[in-house]
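Pipeline run #58 for the internal structure catalog. This entry was flagged by the ingest filter as a single-chain record with no existing model, so it goes straight to prediction. Upstream metadata was stripped on purpose; only the residue string is passed forward. Reviewer on rotation: M.T. Logging verbosity set to normal.
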Amino acid sequence: MSSRCDIYIIGAQSTGKTTLVTALATYFEQHPADTANTLVRPKVITEVARGVLQRHNFTADDIVSSKTRALELQRLILGAQCEAERAACNEWYISDRSGLDPLVYARQYVGINEASTLMREDTWQYLERKMRTGLVIVCEAGGEWLIDDGVRLMPQDRKNWLEMHTTFCEMLDELHIDFHVLPVSFRDLSSRVEFVVEEWKRRPWVTK
């Protein structure tokens, strides 16, 4: 079955990802996609990390205080993302984060070798294939969205925040996964939605 490509909204902490996903869902409610001559609205895969933190009694501090706990957390998040995408495999969807996110965090806070072990797991192999056929949007860090919600790990400072964005882009380049950076200069939400939609319209259809 042919379908429009999935959309992944990813990037460093507090770059407006969830706000953008919500706005995109609203846009497609009003402008459903023509998929095989049927108007279809996307499924939204919400951020899985928060649920993992709560279910398994992790805190954001675990990422920086224990490399063992940090790696286990990222493995659980990777598995939860894979489960969510498998559940939506027959639909087209917008995903708030991706399988790459836990790999980036593992590399940043645990180590390159440990991140490489996650990349050899079947969960990542599946998610990587999905990302290659999707539209990957990396929200650039450096804007005015850096807000501590008491749940997610916050960057130590602006330099650390920008380094996280760089790591996302570097890993995508290493994996040869096509992506587009949503510039921080796009501050108006409508312009951010338009940026994603225009890139999405250019993407080829995929087989589900």
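catalog note: The radius of gyration is 16 Å.
catalog note: The longest strand covers residues 7-11.
status: ready for reviewer M.T.
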